[in-house]
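User: Could you go from structure to sequence for me? I need the amino acid at each position, not a summary. Structure tokens:
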């Protein structure tokens, strides 16, 4: 039996997402959201959600939303006792590194990342032997162990800035081959890349961009820099998920496509009802492991707590903090 009072309480939240959440799905979401909002108060918890989370998480239970860089920055400032990461495992690890006294929970331990899986700490040590003295810039989409072998971290939002701020003629940039190539195209710094790929963004092709433009006249194409370089070259603008959202907010393109994870368009479309979003998106199966159901369980049972070996954490934290300082 549906609780009418609960549905009344949740009605203002449905207004936020009604354009992307069908009415038939809402009652079960509403029940979970109501429980999560109560549990957050009881546990003194906050929920950080990446831009790829589904709208009912992003718009209805999250306290802080953003790209990897924003989530890292905000994680360092959280005052609540508990942080629930609605995102993938490396994001939860970064939050723990930056706020070690807090309990950081990830609702599903299987929420990984193909980039984080593509490289180990031993691989980084071998690269250092091969290129002595060359600084290592590591994308945040890596394990704490890999960060711990690095000089500094970067995100897609600051990669170019970090590479140039080091003042070195050559840097090793790990592990995303395409982010490294897309960054190399914008700088004179020589970049040595690794062979990692994002399984979501590597699937977009330049031919697809051409077809989309032919099918949808006037289309503005926005791409994430984890896409292959020819896709980025064929796009009108490339940037982190926050930069893509910022572009839509500033330029208000009448017809736009975001070459990135599917939920991005849903989350932005909610904010800009007048714009037409074309959606040939790709799903990230790791981001989609996080649901209202497992966020609720995480808060009920205080699971799954993220821990990092203290010796690794000291070095990994230094690489993330150096990024934030730069
Ligand atoms: P940003 O949100 O930092 O652009 O990263 C995208 C991504 O793929 C995170 O998993
Ligand atoms: Fe990793 Fe790509 Fe998924 Fe982001 S979208 S979590 S980079 S697999």
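Assistant: Here is the amino acid at each position, in order:
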């Amino acid at each position: 039996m549906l609780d009418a009072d609960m549905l009344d309480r949740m009605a203002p939240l449905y207004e936020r997402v009604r354009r992307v959440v069908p009415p038939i799905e809402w009652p079960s979401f509403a029940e979970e959201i109501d429980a999560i909002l109560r549990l957050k108060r009881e546990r003194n918890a906050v929920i950080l959600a990446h831009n790829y989370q589904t709208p009912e998480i992003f718009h209805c239970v999250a306290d802080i939303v953003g790209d990897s860089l924003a989530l890292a920055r905000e994680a360092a400032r959280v005052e609540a006792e508990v942080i629930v990461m609605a995102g993938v495992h490396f994001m939860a690890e970064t939050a723990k590194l930056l706020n070690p006294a807090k309990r950081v929970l990830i609702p599903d331990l299987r929420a990984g990342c193909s980039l984080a899986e593509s490289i180990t700490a031993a691989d980084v040590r071998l690269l250092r032997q091969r290129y002595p003295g060359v600084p290592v810039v590591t994308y945040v989409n890596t394990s704490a162990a890999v960060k711990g072998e690095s000089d500094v971290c970067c995100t897609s939002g600051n990669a170019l800035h970090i590479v140039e701020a080091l003042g070195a003629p050559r840097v090793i940039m790990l592990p995303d081959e395409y982010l490294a190539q897309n960054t190399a195209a914008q700088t004179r710094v020589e970049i040595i890349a690794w062979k990692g790929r994002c399984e979501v963004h590597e699937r977009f092709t330049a031919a697809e961009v051409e077809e989309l433009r032919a099918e949808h006249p006037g289309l503005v194409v926005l791409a994430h820099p984890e896409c292959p370089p020819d896709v980025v070259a064929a796009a009108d603008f490339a940037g982190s998920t926050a930069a893509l959202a910022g572009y839509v907010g500033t330029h208000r393109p009448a017809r736009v496509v975001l070459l990135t994870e599917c939920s991005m368009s849903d989350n932005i479309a909610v904010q800009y009802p007048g714009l037409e979003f074309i959606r040939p998106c790709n799903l990230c199966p790791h981001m989609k492991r996080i649901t209202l159901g497992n966020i609720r369980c995480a808060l009920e049972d205080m699971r799954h707590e993220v821990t990092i070996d203290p010796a690794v954490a000291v070095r990994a934290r230094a690489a993330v903090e150096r990024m934030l300082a730069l």
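One structural detail worth keeping in mind: The pocket of 1,3-dihydroxyacetonephosphate (ligand 1) is lined by residues 51, 67-69, 141, 155-157, 198, 224, 226, 240-241 (CB under 6 Å).
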